[in-house]
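[PROTEIN RECORD]
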Amino acid sequence: MEMADHHQRHQSPIVSLLCPPPINVVVCSNTFVKFRHGAQEVVGLVLQVDAVREMVSMRLFLTWEAVKERIALIGNVNNISLWPKDGRYPPFYICDTDLVVDDIPTSSIVGLAFVFYDTSPNIRVVNGMRNTYRVTSCTWFARNLITHGITFSSFPTERFPNVVMSSFPSMIFTQLLSIKRRLQQILNTRSLSGKNSSSAQVENIDNYTWMYIIRDSPAEVENSLVVSRAGDVVMDEFIQRSWREQQLSFWVGDENHLGYAQSLFGLNFGVGVRFTVSCRLKRNEPYAEASRTIDASDTLNIVPFENTSRELVRRGVFFKYKPASKVLSIIVRYRRLIGAINFSQHLEARGMAPFARNDDDASDVIDYPFHYNVLVDGCNIEQYNFGTNLVRLSDSRVLSKDDVISLIERDL
């Protein structure tokens, strides 16, 4: 019932608006965006689009700090946390709410946001990617409640599957993941070639995806004309065609390029392994996975991101895009590094465990976890009433906040 109420203001997603450059975002119902709200940038879910007035209605997704500020006027959440503490890298935690803001001009929209529930498979692959967020809870200020559970859909294609076969945000996200996977595939090579270079093409990359990629790029984008060729068999003839078309390209490999590259394709950008892991899929299973921790004696393929070069040909990644053909070509020049003594500094620079250490995570303030996946007397927490300090568990028991804290302390 709560989910139905929460989405009742959603209109048909057919109405859409284009936010012009440099934003380059097509907005329709159930699109997550970042927008200016007062002096802050806030994540919101578009509920309604007024194409004539160029206005939208938005449901707010707030940080824990913003939620606590509002709760302080009603109740309290002292000594507890409703979701885990944020790390140093995206996706960051935000909270769904019942707060709706009307008549937001589309000119206040600053870009897309990609929001997923904490158990979504996408959470595992977006680590470090910009504009990504994770949600476990919803704050119902009108009811003085915080509940755990899914209260939203990440894309219009999920919210309206029978109406929208594809959508702008899902297109951008899917194509970014396609590029990310292709980069990982060509870096995970055991080739003994002395060139230490791999290349690949990714087809059907939309112009808007390219604009998303180059936005805020610290590297200069070069514009040139190149010759493209294609051949077709028509009836009893083979026809070879050549033509000139625009190519846009840029290179990343300097030290100050690493953060930008990671914000697009994740923390592990430019890291590949030279070993394989057996992963057998049984006949009746739809999915299987296997893993192996990187060992200190392993050899890795690393794009070093440095301002000086040991090699005659500079290490780095070239991106070359043909807008007319919608083809993205990738050339990766890497370095083979043997043993942790050689590659650990590159993993640490990327913030990758187990070699990266973050002493900032230590905190003197102890918050009791009221998270969705924490067991309290064998049950999960379903909701917390911050007006009455009562907690409902998944077995329908209602306990006081202090009783829940006592049970958590008992099981530590």
In short: Residues 254 and 307 are 5 Å apart (CA to CA). The chain has eight helices and 26 strands.
